[in-house]
Amino acid sequence: MALGKDEDEQRLRFEEMLRNADLGIEKLWLRYFSIGGIAGQFEVEAYIHGAIALPALQRDILAHALNERLDEINAPDGRAPYSRGSEDAGRLHDDRPHEDTDRPEEESGQDD
């Protein structure tokens, strides 16, 4: 999967901010995974080096993990960018509703 122009710009800025964060890829991946990221460490490293693409939501979770680190060290040079214009950029979870209204209500086990 090739990187699009917007994704490549986001990745390049991310890579720059990662250098400022004094954070290795292993620790970055652990932070990313702990806040809901689903890509493996190998995929994250490949994305950082421009070898593969990641979905916008995963890029945004990765950026958030890095931005938390940048906040911790009070980095003055900006933040890792979030994706823009993607249909799943702001989505935190999948599209399923919180309650599944298609399922019949569970029976209580009591006879009426």
Q: What is the number of helices? A: 4
Q: In which range does the helix fraction lie?
A: 40-55%
Number of strands: 0
Chain-averaged pLDDT: 80
Shape: globular
- The low-confidence parts are 86-108
Instruction: Indicate the radius of gyration in whole angstroms.
Output: 19 Å
Biggest pleated-sheet summary: none
Structural class: mainly alpha
Chain-wise SSE layout:
Layout: H1 5-20, H2 25-34, H3 41-48, H4 56-72
Q: Would you give an account of this structure?
A:
- It is a single chain.
- The chain has 112 residues and is mainly alpha-helical.
- It is 46% helix and 0% strand.
- It has helices at residues 5-20, 25-34, 41-48, 56-72.
- Helix 2 (25-34) crosses helix 4 (56-72).
- The longest helix is centred in the middle third of the chain and has 17 residues, at 56-72.
- The N and C termini lie far apart (58 Å).
